[in-house]
Amino acid sequence: MNPTFLQTPIDYLKGVGPNRADMLRTELGIHTFQDLIHLFPHRYIDRTRYYKVSELQQTNAEVQIIGKITHLKMVEGKGRRLVATFKDDTGQMELVWFRGHKWIKESIKLNVPYVIFGKTNYYSGKYSMPHPEMEPLAEHEKSLRSAMQPVYPSTEKLTNKGITNKVINGLMQTLFLEAKNHLFESLSKPIISELKLMPKNEAIFNIHFPQSQAKLSRAQYRLKFEELFYIQLQLARKNMAHKSKIKGYPFEKVGPIFTDFYNNHLPFELTGAQKRVLKEIRADLGSNAQMNRLLQGDVGSGKTIVALLSMLIALDNGFQACLMAPTAILAVQHYNGLLELCKNLNTSISLLQGSTKTSERKIIHENLENGSLSILIGTHALLEDKVKFKNLGLAIIDEQHRFGVKQRSKLWHKNEYPPHVLVMTATPIPRTLAMTVYGDLDVSVIDELPPGRKSIKTVHRYDANRLKVFAFIRDEIKKGRQVYIVYPLIQESEAMDYKDLMDGYESISREFPKPNYQISIVHGQMKPADKDYEMERFVKGETQIMVATTVIEVGVNVPNASVMIIESAERFGLSQLHQLRGRVGRGAEQSYCILMTSFKLSSDSKTRLETMTRTNDGFEIAEVDLKLRGPGDIMGTQQSGVLNLKIADIIRDNDILKIARNEAWKVLKDDPTLLKEENRIIKFVYTQLMKFKNIWSFIS
Ligand code: ADP
Ligand code: MG
């Protein structure tokens, strides 16, 4: 290894002058030899195949054809161009040049076989190829070329300045010859031999100059693995550090409160998934480390009972517990639900929210501090400074996406040691991503719905069919059901959305007039008290229709509501649509979700609608969402570095990711501080990684 050589500024590479060096720096962030050698091709062109003109299809990307030029002519006027007639034994097409006419005319030989290569266009029955790459067949056969030609990331500026893919290829060739003796192995021997990975220098060689498809695949595998391995190693280290540093109160026993409830008052048999998750939580609570666990479960999967059972364990061990919800509506619902579940237990539960009266608050504060209050349910109000627990042992946070990390840590600092933390979310984070993003958080998944649920029927209807939809609503209401009608609210255009909502409300009121029908309306611009009042009327069944914006998205539970109508459904994201749909299907009746849209739909919208009508599985939906949006929009991806991947793809390379994660954990479990000789390389690379933050900026 000679790091100084690889640190050489790119200006010093043969073929790179000051101008090119500047371009490489500003356009591709390439400063050194090492940066260039880690510029990985994003695809390869297969030059093993030769097409016939008659085989061309409009869907072809780039093709290679053997044939002869029989004619050359200039077409004058706007878009002045040189056009060649190109023939093989199956047909003919055109080659077109908009620039460099003089040179082409002088160098092209008519009626001599050429190999041409490029993208084809199809226009009124004819194929043409603009600015083909071409070479006389005789020369083509002589030159030794790699069948798989790498295509490097590029920018318009680079191409315009003549730094084409061919030029980068040339530079890579020059560089590799000089650098190959300076590349060092960056994974340990045991890992390389166990996974039969290609050695580093061979992988680098084959990624730039693939010797065969098989070698290219192995090179890609090796480099992807390496990239993911070091990210996973980082996350695993964080997780282990957390566990060894942050002590928690061990809840050693499961005592009388839990046992009594479990044996005598559990209203239903737990699902297998609920049991498994509870076991995972118990194991965490019983250890000396602070629990930091994310509980994922689709809407209706039964997270609440898991939360309650976990809280009872805290109580059994002499600690208090709290449950925090993102909205007052939800907090109240949790409070009522838990009161009902605990009615036969001798535990005290209180509710604290913004609107709690001062006198009531005082009592809650007192009872919290003297320990006579065991369970506190509430909103953000729980985070106020005056709220002091005697000994908070477990904090549960519902619907994590509404809370920032800061708010969470505020709960932690209530008492001497941080309480165990369980974060519950119904926003399924694809397993793929959870593994990477939350590598330092433990994740439990409830992936099974309670038995006997009728799956929600979802359909897509155009606005033009509104009358039929209204008729359907009338029928459902006649059967005693209730209906949600939701309008999009997108922050940037709040005024307009608000108008949509009010217009909708008016037309619904006309269609469903009093006194036969009663309608609630809830939106973000209402005072909380008014919102609660309207919500309450719907919950009690006093109104049959709830017209709302997405404020009802989170957690509201009205089992009698059987229809969810989503207006302008094309404007909602997939996860939001799924959340909204989860508001129905909570009772024994068949439920429906109707997605209303205009006729004009983008292809992404179509995919979203198709996905919604096809499946109810939140994880499947989340995977589609991830594919549509990329990981960028999903919480936590920024910090985790998954967006800076150079060669691996978090979605497509999920299998490699799993292996990388296993290996990272295996290494650390066996040798937590990487002191063993066999892990010397890993330690070195890892240390550099922590220094430079970009794994490829030093692995060489
Ligand atoms: P979520 O995960 O969305 O918070 P809840 O905890 O509110 O779901 O549960 C949804 C509904 O399913 C509740 O009415 C709850 O009583 C019921 N439920 C939960 N677990 C089971 C089970 N194992 N068997 C039957 N019903 C269950
Ligand atoms: Mg819930």
From TrEMBL:
<dbReference type="GO" id="GO:0006281">
    <property type="term" value="P:DNA repair"/>
</dbReference>
<dbReference type="InterPro" id="IPR004609">
    <property type="entry name" value="ATP-dep_DNA_helicase_RecG"/>
</dbReference>
<keyword id="KW-0378">Hydrolase</keyword>
<dbReference type="GO" id="GO:0016887">
    <property type="term" value="F:ATP hydrolysis activity"/>
</dbReference>
<keyword id="KW-0547">Nucleotide-binding</keyword>
<dbReference type="Pfam" id="PF00270">
    <property type="entry name" value="DEAD"/>
</dbReference>
<feature type="domain" description="Helicase ATP-binding">
    <location>
        <begin position="284"/>
        <end position="446"/>
    </location>
</feature>
<dbReference type="InterPro" id="IPR027417">
    <property type="entry name" value="P-loop_NTPase"/>
</dbReference>
<keyword id="KW-0233">DNA recombination</keyword>
<dbReference type="GO" id="GO:0043138">
    <property type="term" value="F:3'-5' DNA helicase activity"/>
</dbReference>
<dbReference type="InterPro" id="IPR012340">
    <property type="entry name" value="NA-bd_OB-fold"/>
</dbReference>
<dbReference type="InterPro" id="IPR033454">
    <property type="entry name" value="RecG_wedge"/>
</dbReference>
<keyword id="KW-0234">DNA repair</keyword>
<keyword id="KW-0413">Isomerase</keyword>
<dbReference type="Pfam" id="PF19833">
    <property type="entry name" value="RecG_dom3_C"/>
</dbReference>
<feature type="domain" description="Helicase C-terminal">
    <location>
        <begin position="465"/>
        <end position="632"/>
    </location>
</feature>
<comment type="similarity">
    <text>Belongs to the helicase family. RecG subfamily.</text>
</comment>
<dbReference type="InterPro" id="IPR011545">
    <property type="entry name" value="DEAD/DEAH_box_helicase_dom"/>
</dbReference>
<keyword id="KW-0238">DNA-binding</keyword>
<dbReference type="InterPro" id="IPR001650">
    <property type="entry name" value="Helicase_C-like"/>
</dbReference>
<dbReference type="GO" id="GO:0003677">
    <property type="term" value="F:DNA binding"/>
</dbReference>
<keyword id="KW-0227">DNA damage</keyword>
<dbReference type="Pfam" id="PF00271">
    <property type="entry name" value="Helicase_C"/>
</dbReference>
<dbReference type="InterPro" id="IPR045562">
    <property type="entry name" value="RecG_dom3_C"/>
</dbReference>
<dbReference type="InterPro" id="IPR014001">
    <property type="entry name" value="Helicase_ATP-bd"/>
</dbReference>
<dbReference type="InterPro" id="IPR047112">
    <property type="entry name" value="RecG/Mfd"/>
</dbReference>
<dbReference type="Pfam" id="PF17191">
    <property type="entry name" value="RecG_wedge"/>
</dbReference>
<dbReference type="GO" id="GO:0006310">
    <property type="term" value="P:DNA recombination"/>
</dbReference>
<keyword id="KW-0067">ATP-binding</keyword>
<keyword id="KW-0347">Helicase</keyword>
<protein>
    <recommendedName>
        <fullName>ATP-dependent DNA helicase RecG</fullName>
        <ecNumber>5.6.2.4</ecNumber>
    </recommendedName>
</protein>
<comment type="function">
    <text>Plays a critical role in recombination and DNA repair. Helps process Holliday junction intermediates to mature products by catalyzing branch migration. Has replication fork regression activity, unwinds stalled or blocked replication forks to make a HJ that can be resolved. Has a DNA unwinding activity characteristic of a DNA helicase with 3'-5' polarity.</text>
</comment>
<dbReference type="GO" id="GO:0005524">
    <property type="term" value="F:ATP binding"/>
</dbReference>
